[in-house]
Design a protein that fits this description.
- The complex is a heterodimer.
- Chain A has a domain at 54-174.
- Chain A is 8% helix and 26% strand.
- Chain A has two helices and eight strands, in the order H-H-E-E-E-E-E-E-E-E.
- In chain A, a hairpin with a 7-residue loop joins strand 5 (123-129) and strand 6.
- Chain B is 38% helix and 18% strand.
- Chain B has 17 helices and 13 strands.
- In chain B, the strands form three sheets. A nine-stranded mixed beta sheet of chain B has the order 3-2-4-7-1-8-13-12-11, with helices on both faces. In chain B, strands 5-6 form a two-stranded antiparallel ribbon.
- In chain B, strand 5 and strand 6 (204-205) form a beta hairpin.
- The radius of gyration of chain B is 20 Å and the shape is globular.
- The chains are: A mainly beta, B alpha+beta.
- At the A-B interface, strand 4, strand 5 and strand 6 of A face helix 5, helix 6, helix 7 and strand 5 of B.
Chain lengths: 175, 417
């Protein structure tokens, strides 16, 4: 163990606290500038009604085991992650169906994550490239460990049966 | 446009947690330090300010900016908040620059802060990941270390960059920070230490990634007339550049390299650009700033650089964006010694984000302050040691960068006395 690590060794902290109704207080106010800070816990929670707006057909597609992208009606630039309007020329895009097989453009394995995904670690993220598409698609790659993934690897889409209307309704496995 | 000068700066110590202080108090500490360094400057002489903070989630307080403004005693003078993820500090610096350059203000204060300790590290990572597309990216496993890991995996594939080259950046920056009293982490590391640290997202370990921090920083900018009255050691801002790129990495184009004067199309015959291996916004920001400052050979014409090394990988990618070397040569440059404190062009002589900490809204301004002290030749006065003073530093570059390269700012500062 490194010296620095040894110095940092300690019990894991939790943010549970104790209900406290009073604190000691001095008669002489001159020392209050140096008083220890009072730290309290404040809960914050909210449900958003998030609309996918013009991107909604993509999620309806996933619920029907179809992977959709978009293609510009002006310059034919093709998006593997859909956009209704083209970044290249500003034109409007049409919905198209993407192939359900692609290749790993790049990847990683996350051993830690945001709180919302911490219980799913380790998980693999991939950017998928498809024949005929100019852009990529972010997804999970499942069923393989870190040392089995490589750039260029052929992978295919799978869909969850009970759609959650999330981009994770589609995920990839080795082809 | 008028010439713009920096006349003073201050930093309120970056730490993992500063429960003894609210964000206003930390800003006041940085501001008072800066004010004390230019004794001729009074509150009345300040025309206005720009506030820099990234996330309302961390403070759980909307309009934090005005609370810093009133705490500093700057009301009812003009102020506004700027925000652009990790580049917020750099954007704030440039916003203050614009206020002076346009003639709207003679003296403008740029202050920034973040209090990231108010939530646990993994909730903090969630807040940061909300700075990715919440329809298509965040739900898949939103985690910025994962996003940067995917970028460097592709960089390794394109150019043969190695994990040891990434680790060399961590070793260098921590070694510099060892002599910086403002730094959050002052450690002597080896390449093996970095590789043996817990893996976060392959290939990035805990020592390849910056930490969360509480802290504040402040830069005071002025017109030429005001600067000459306030200090005999002013620093002129001779170049500014700002670039952007698509939020979703999946949308980044695969086209041709945007060339700097020291490059030719033949250098990159088979390279698709920027893909996910390079930061187009960083290249554009650098190109604009270089054109304005008249720089054509960056590594030899800049005396030092403070750049946004939230990840060791992004420091290497940024060497290339800024033209310190060609695309693909960033890994070897990290190992070459040329970017060390005694090298041709020291990069992150302060220790960078990796070792100094990254209280997002303060970070880009902290770089401004450290660069300013380097150019004044006052590192010893402010750090208590001249170990990190770049000898005879005349021209430096600061670089601020937001999530996966969405916003990037580059500003060039030059000694002007």
């Amino acid at each position: 163990m490194m010296e620095e690590e040894r110095k940092r060794t300690k019990l894991e902290e939790t943010d549970e606290g104790t209900i406290l109704f009073n604190v000691p207080f001095p008669r002489d106010l001159s020392g209050l500038r140096d008083m220890s800070p009072i730290v309290i816990k404040q809960h914050y929670e909210i449900d958003y009604l998030h609309s996918y707006g013009q991107d909604s057909p993509f999620f309806a597609g996933l619920a029907n085991k179809r992977l959709l992208g978009t293609k510009c009606t002006g310059c034919a630039y093709t998006y593997a992650t859909p956009r209704r309007h083209c970044m290249e020329c500003g034109g409007e895009c049409d919905w198209i169906e993407l192939p359900q097989e692609g290749r790993v453009h790049t990847w990683t394995t996350c051993h830690f994550g945001s709180e919302a995904f911490l219980d799913q670690t380790p998980f693999n993220l991939v950017l998928v490239e498809f024949d005929g598409a100019d852009t990529l698609f972010l997804s999970r790659l499942v069923g393989v460990s870190e040392d089995e993934i490589s750039i260029g690897m052929r992978i295919k889409a799978r869909f969850v049966r009970n759609s959650k209307f999330s981009p994770t309704d589609v995920y990839f496995v080795p082809a | 446009m008028r010439d713009v000068y920096m006349v003073s700066g201050g930093v309120s110590k970056f730490k993992k947690a500063r429960p003894e202080a609210t964000f206003q108090f930390m800003v006041k500490e940085a501001f008072d330090y800066a004010m004390k360094d230019v004794p001729g400057l009074t509150l009345e002489m300040i025309d206005g300010s720009v506030a820099s903070y990234f996330s309302d989630h961390f403070q759980r307080q909307l309009m934090s900016g005005i609370m810093a403004q009133d705490y500093l005693g700057l009301c009812p003078k003009p102020s506004k908040r700027v925000e652009g993820g990790g580049a917020t500090g750099g954007l704030c610096f440039q916003s203050a620059y614009e206020a002076i350059a346009s003639g709207r203000m003679e003296i403008c204060v740029a202050y920034g802060f973040e209090t990231m300790s108010h939530v646990n590290t993994w909730k903090g990572n969630e807040f940061i990941a909300l700075a990715s597309d919440v329809s298509f990216d965040y739900p898949v496993g939103g985690f910025y270390s994962g996003y940067y890991a995917m970028m460097v995996v592709r960089h390794m594939h394109e150019f043969g960059t190695t994990v040891e080259q990434l680790a060399a950046v961590s070793v260098k920056n921590h070694a510099n920070a060892f002599h910086n009293p403002y730094a959050q982490k002052r450690m002597k590391l080896t390449i093996q230490d970095v590789r043996n640290a817990p893996m976060v997202a392959y290939p990035l370990t805990r020592l390849d990634i910056c930490v969360m921090s509480d802290g504040a920083a402040c830069c005071i900018l002025a017109s030429e007339d005001a600067a000459r009255k306030l200090t005999d050691k002013p620093v002129r801002i001779t170049g500014v550049g700002t670039g952007t790129d698509a939020m979703r990495m999946s949308d980044r184009p695969h086209k041709e390299v945007i060339l700097l004067p020291n490059e030719s199309p033949d250098d990159y015959k088979d390279l698709k650009y920027p893909g996910v291996h390079s930061f187009r916004a960083g290249r554009v920001a650098g190109k604009q700033a270089y054109e304005m400052a008249g720089i054509t050979d960056p590594i030899n014409e800049l005396d030092f650089i403070e750049l946004h090394d939230a990840y060791t990988s992004s420091e290497i990618q940024t060497y290339e964006d800024l033209g310190l070397c060609k695309y693909g040569e960033g890994g070897p440059l990290a190992e070459s010694g040329n970017v060390n404190i005694d090298g041709v062009c020291p990069v992150n002589p302060s220790g960078g984000l990796i070792a100094c900490g990254h209280p997002v809204g303060a970070t880009g301004l902290m770089q401004g302050v450290f660069a300013f002290w380097q150019l004044q030749g006052t590192i010893k006065k402010h750090f208590g040691s001249e170990k990190l003073q770049v000898k005879d530093a005349k021209r430096g570059l600061i670089h601020s960068h937001a999530g996966t390269g969405t916003y990037v700012t580059v500003s060039i500062l030059e000694r002007s006395f």
